[in-house]
Amino acid sequence: MTATPAGTASTLVIAPMLVVLVAAAGTLLLGRHPRARTAVSLAGGAGYAIAVAAIDWYIVLGPDAPGIATYQVGDLPAPFGITLVADGLSAFMLTMVAILGIASLVFSTRHLPGGEGRSYYFPLFHFLALGVTGAFLTGDLFNLFVWFEVMLMASYVFVAYSGGPQHTRAAFWYVTLNLLASAVFLLGVGGIYATTGTLNMADLAQRLAEPAAYGLEPVPVVGLLGLLLSVFAIKAGLVPFQFWIPTAYRAAPPQITALLAGATKKVGIYAIIRLSFTIFAGAEVAVDLPLPLVDVAITGDSPLPFVGAALFVMAAGSILLGGIGAVGRDSMEGVFAYSSIGQVGFIAIPVAIATTAAGPELRTFAIIAALVYALNHTLAKGLLFLAVGTVRSATGTSRFADLGGLAKRSPPLALAVFVGSLALVGIPPLSGFFGKFLVFDAAARAGSGPVLVLLLVGSLLTIAYATRLWNRSFWGARTDAVEAATVDPVQVAILVGLAVAIIAVGVGFEPVYEFAETAAEAALDTEGYVDAVDPQTASELAGSNGGGH
Amino acid sequence: MTGIVLAAAIGTLFALGTFLLLRRDLIRVVWGLAIISQAANVYLLAMGGIAPATAESVPILAGHGEHVPETADPLVQALVLTAIVIGFGMTAFALVLSYRVYEEHDTLDVTELGESE
Q1: Quick one: which of A150, A247, A492, A509 is 20 to 30 A from A195 by CA?
Q2: Measured between alpha carbons, how far is A379 from A371 in angstroms, rounded to an integer?
Q3: pLDDT confidence of A282, banded at 50, 70, 90?
Q4: Which parts of the sequence belong to the NADH:quinone oxidoreductase/Mrp antiporter transmembrane domain (chain A) (predicted)?
């Protein structure tokens, strides 16, 4: 691999970001022309899907694919410029976001929340996608911070979008929490720069693997990684940072909540996986943290055991709190918001197993389990939140007290929600079955009895709240609101499309598993990542420039 | 000496920001956020360290050759500029949002807002 791999693969890396940026600017300019605005928006969505598919095929999955490609912004070699990296892990995440993003975008063109006058809806939508995409592709820690901010800024407006008392209040809490998180992120970034002298992720991995050769004292990195982990846990909504989720998810328009749950949450998960495994797994740091209260000592020669211990506790809390919280809610989006806290716990458990895994085989397997579960959560929760949008635009409400008998009123809608709920529960042959199966299998292979019990309790809670939701809104006597409802056929078609995708992932699971396997291997392949980015030293750079200027 | 002064300044800023963040008045909360993000910026700047300047580390010194005793890492300054711009935008947004909250709820008291659900 050369220092600046020219050609298609390299240019492809930046393609999805450029497409969304153009779409965002275009929709901003065409704000006063609803038809043109919608057309540009849809074209942007299609272009994004094509760009992501091209990355999947030409960089990751195709027969001649290199597996990883980099784009050095402004042709400045790493670590001096900003590096964008597309590998299996990024491609897997981008594919999830593309599928859900298209569904949510088409849904939005059918039912623009707040009416046609809201000319800033689509630009914000694309900026949200831009932030998520940038976070998946960047290979620079500070740049990750910037993409987080791009993503958050759009999501702030969406939480406050409806403008009512509860929306502005939810938005204020959300903004306050995330501004604090941003400050903590900056502290982590600054500390890591002071400790290692670089912010390029590949360079960081390289330096931390041989701290002595670079004259570093890497011990502070463990604590700094803890700071960053808490920021990512806020984005992912893991306990004890889950409290913003129910209010924010209820306040945002449902089709945006689908994206918040399906895409921005996954950014938190992605950042945890990327930093813990690709970057910090090889760090030569002796960790010895005795916890006398619970009679456990966290020891190891990399920061991973520390990450793992924290993740286990957070994931266990999330599964229990999310599940129990979801059982008692009185509206559809309330149930799904709490459910999403619990489901992220199910994604974090295998990640935690991977950090403490004895061998590379179990580590790869556990990450595959996490990724497959994340894919299932994105599809299923995306479908269910869009269904909330459909129910709300048809009946004007999503409270259980006003709903009932929806199943007979619109059988296709009921069928789609049924498939989505079953995918959450994990019934074969849906995508959720394999997600749950792999997570259970990873826990069994790790030989952890308490984790298996926890997963079982979490699954039972899932069955309880899914059943309750179904009974309260889809069965029973029709209420007045349901009687007067007019269900939009295109919205239902989108839901059915996602339901078909959930079934397709379950039936044709083999290629999905292979993709997840490629992604997991990429996440663990620190050497390949460093080689592809190829961070230069100042002396190498001077040499290649013929002695400098 | 510079190090101690910087550390004390950062500590004071974080303490002040946290204090304001815990007030009942929403505007004070916004001020607290602004001060905390500025404290993070100062911290980031301090993380570059302060070292004797040479023509190699600071390009602008290359053509002059006069002795400059100490200078900071230019990279963190570039990072801080980005962070300041983002922080400025967010503070403005938070202020506008707190006005909208006031319009909707007729109060800026955090406790009363919490009870209004």
Answers
A1: A150
A2: 12
A3: confident
A4: 139-462
For A172, the closest of B47, B87, B97 (CB atoms) is B97
- pLDDT of residue A422 exceeding 70, the answer is yes
Asked if A176 and B33 come within 8 Å (Cβ–Cβ), the reply is yes
Nearest CB to B86 within list A149, A187, A193: A149
C-alpha span between A136 and A98 (Å, rounded): 12
> Per residue in A181-203, pLDDT tens?
999 999 999 999 999 889 999 99
Query: What DSSP designation does A138 have?
Result: B
Say whether pLDDT at A6 is over 60: no
CA-nearest residue of chain B to A145?
B83
Q: How far apart are CA A501 and CA A89, in angstroms?
A: 20
The H or E element containing residue A513 is helix A509-524
Q: ipTM above 0.85?
A: yes
In whole angstroms, how far apart are CA A23 and each of A114, A137, A153, A327?
21, 19, 17, 40
Distance between CA atoms of residues B96 and A252, nearest Å: 18
Q: At what angle do helices A165-196 and A141-160 cross, to 10 degrees?
A: 180
| In the predicted structure, residue A544 carries a pLDDT above the cut 60 | no
Q: Could you read off the pLDDT of A13-37 as tens digits, one per residue?
A: 999 999 999 999 999 999 888 889 9
Q: Rounded to whole angstroms, how far apart are CA atoms A34 and A27?
A: 9
The residue with tokens 């839901």 is: A495
**What is the average pLDDT score of chain A?**
90
HEC string of A327-372 equals HCCCEHHHHHHHHHHHHHHHHHHHHHHHHHCCCHHHHHHHHHHHHH
What does the domain layout of chain B look like in residue ranges? 4-49+70-116
Best of A172, A195, A198 to disrupt the B interface (most B CBs within 10 Å) is A172
DSSP B29: H
CB contact under 8 A, A169 and B113: yes
Residues of B in contact with A171 (CB under 8 A): 97
Name the residue in chain B with its Cα closest to that of A169: B101
pLDDT band at A237 (very low <50, low <70, confident <90, very high): very high
Look at residue A68 and give its three-state secondary structure: strand
Using the Cβ of A142 and the Cβ atoms of chain B, whether some distance falls under 8 Å is answered with yes
Spatial separation of the C-alpha atoms in residues A121 and A126, rounded to whole Å = 9
Q: A545 vs A5, A74, A534, A548, B85, CA distance in Å?
A: 17, 16, 16, 5, 34
Candidates A169, A217, A539, partner chain B, best to mutate (most B CBs within 10 A): A169
Both tokens assigned to A383:
């479908």
Chain B partners of A193 at a C-beta cutoff of 8 Å? 47-48, 75-76, 79
Give the distance, in angstroms, between the CA of residue A10 and the centroid of all CA atoms in the same chain: 24
* Arch. (CATH architecture) of B4-49+70-116: Orthogonal Bundle (1.10)
Residue A172 at interface with chain B, using a CB cutoff of 8 Å: yes
The CA-to-CA distance between both ends of chain B, in Å, stands at 51
Name chain B contacts of A164, Cβ cutoff 8 Å: 104
Of A165, A175, A193, the CB nearest to B47: A193
To 5 degrees, how large is the angle CA A259–CA A265–CA A271?
Answer: 135
**Shortest Cα distance, chain A CAs vs residue B71, angstroms:** 16
